[in-house]
């Protein structure tokens, strides 16, 4: 999935008015679309944790469809009414030249949220029953759809970059949702339906108590993206910063994606006896490998080849992206640590600590960005990334604090299930 952003940027940067279309995509369309879909992102974790029997699955599926319908209606209201002008002009204060094309992109991406809700919900079922390979294959299907739309759009010529970018996003997620629908049918029939009902059936209240804090977490987390766009729009090199933002975000997503996916690994496997030592060792290796990958992007010849030659970014964007990577360097390791602490909290089903950590993150980011706007002496891209990095450091610290009880419980469980002679090794 991390390759989707660079692929889109590579094509858009080779079409007419690349800075404007990249800024419209990265500064308005993608942040607003993510903000709208935020409440459904944690359906993956919720489905992984709660889809243990058919009754629970049906209850969650009904909730998923209702939430998808409400958020799709919200997307239409934002994209097709004067509310968009209010957000773009007065809240985000976007450069005037990107506002009209961004609206077109938002209208095209209307199917995005419900497709992602359906996909993530059923991916959780696949992960729950040990079919994560099918999830990975679905990502390949998605990227194939992306590549098809990008190739057609570039070959035809004369199509606006924002139209191609938004159409690629929609084609990818809808195609992957169709694939997941086909891939999950056997698991639903042969594994989920025959699963025994738990002693304590999942109630609506228990489901909402579990999910609402997670949903609020993602809403708060993804509100930070429009806030970042609003701040960069008011700082030096506003258009260039917004144009570079999706590239930097894609690199961050690729290198943090390993640690982000680790969250579902922890949720799915932490219930196993003696799982925590293995998960810890794996998490450390994952963090080292992802950080090393980001380090490769920072090697000057590699950076020049990717951001200049492969993606075809126009000056000064390649230099700005290269300068941003140093700020991103701690992020892959932080993502892995966050996922481990968060997985422990999810296992305990006391998810309030996750919401608190993101609220702290958002508050710190907002305060720092306000300070950056008032200062007005630093390029928006660099200051925004620094603010986000500071917020992530505080967020992981809070997760460490709030996950202590859950981690202590898991550690005690693993000690009591080990043979006596091997307990000291923990």
In short:
With 426 residues, the protein is an all-alpha fold.
Mean pLDDT: 89
Order of helices and strands, N to C? HHHHHHHHHHHHHHHHHH
Taking the sheet with the most strands, its summary is: none
Provide the domain count.
2
- Poorly predicted runs are 420-426
Rg for CA atoms? 22 Å
Helical content class: over 70%
List its traits:
mainly alpha; 2 domains
Would you mind describing this structure in some detail?
The protein folds into 2 domains: about 1-200, no CATH class; about 205-425, no CATH class. The protein is about 80% helix and about 0% strand. It has helices spanning about 5-10, 20-40, 45-50, 55-80, 85-90, 95-110, 110-130, 130-155, 160-190, 205-230, 240-270, 275-300, 300-310, 315-330, 330-350, 350-375, 380-400, 405-415. The longest helix has about 30 residues, at about 160-190. The protein is globular, with a radius of gyration of 22 Å. Residues about 420-425 have low confidence and may be disordered.
Layout of SSEs?
Layout lengths: L3 H9 L5 H24 L1 H8 L3 H27 L2 H9 L4 H13 L3 H17 L3 H25 L4 H32 L11 H29 L5 H32 L5 H24 L1 H11 L6 H12 L2 H18 L3 H24 L4 H23 L1 H14 L9
């Amino acid at each position: 999935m991390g390759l989707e952003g660079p692929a889109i940027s590579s094509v858009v940067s080779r079409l007419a008015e690349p800075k404007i279309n990249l800024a419209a995509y990265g500064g308005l369309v993608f942040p607003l679309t993510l903000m709208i879909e935020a409440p459904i992102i944690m359906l993956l974790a919720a489905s992984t944790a709660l889809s243990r029997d058919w009754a629970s699955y049906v209850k969650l599926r009904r909730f998923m469809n209702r939430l998808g319908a409400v958020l799709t209606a919200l997307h239409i209201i934002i994209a097709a009414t004067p509310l968009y002008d209010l957000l773009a002009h007065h809240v985000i204060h976007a450069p005037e030249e990107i506002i009209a094309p961004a609206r077109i992109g938002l209208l095209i991406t209307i199917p995005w949220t419900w497709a992602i809700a359906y996909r993530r919900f059923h991916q959780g079922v696949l992960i729950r029953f040990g079919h994560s390979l099918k999830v990975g294959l679905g990502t390949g299907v998605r990227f194939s759809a992306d590549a098809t739309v990008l190739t057609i759009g570039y070959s035809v010529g004369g199509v606006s970059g924002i139209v191609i970018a938004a159409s690629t996003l929609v084609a990818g997620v809808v195609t992957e949702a169709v694939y997941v629908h086909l891939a999950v049918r056997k698991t639903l029939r042969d594994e989920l339906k025959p699963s025994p009902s738990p002693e304590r059936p999942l109630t609506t209240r228990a489901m909402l108590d579990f999910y609402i804090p997670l949903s609020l977490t993602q809403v708060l987390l993804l509100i930070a993206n429009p806030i970042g766009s609003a701040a960069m729009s008011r700082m030096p090199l506003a258009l260039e910063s917004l144009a570079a933002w999706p590239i930097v975000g894609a690199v961050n997503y690729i290198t943090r994606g390993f640690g982000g996916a680790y969250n579902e690994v922890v949720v799915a496997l932490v219930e196993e006896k003696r799982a925590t030592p293995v998960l810890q060792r794996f998490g450390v290796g994952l963090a080292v490998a992802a950080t090393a990958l980001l380090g490769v992007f920072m090697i000057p010849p590699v950076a020049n080849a990717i951001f200049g030659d492969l993606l075809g970014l126009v000056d000064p964007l390649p230099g700005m992206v290269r300068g941003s990577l140093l700020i991103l360097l701690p992020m892959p390791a932080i993502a892995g640590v966050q996922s481990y602490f968060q997985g422990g909290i999810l296992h305990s089903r006391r998810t309030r600590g996750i919401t608190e950590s993101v609220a702290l993150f958002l508050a710190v980011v907002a305060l720092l960005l306000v300070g950056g706007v008032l200062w007005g002496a630093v390029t928006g891209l660099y200051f925004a990334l620094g603010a986000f990095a500071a917020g992530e450091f505080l967020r992981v610290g809070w997760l460490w604090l709030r996950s202590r009880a859950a981690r202590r419980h898991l550690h005690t469980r693993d000690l009591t299930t080990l043979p006596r002679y091997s307990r000291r090794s923990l």
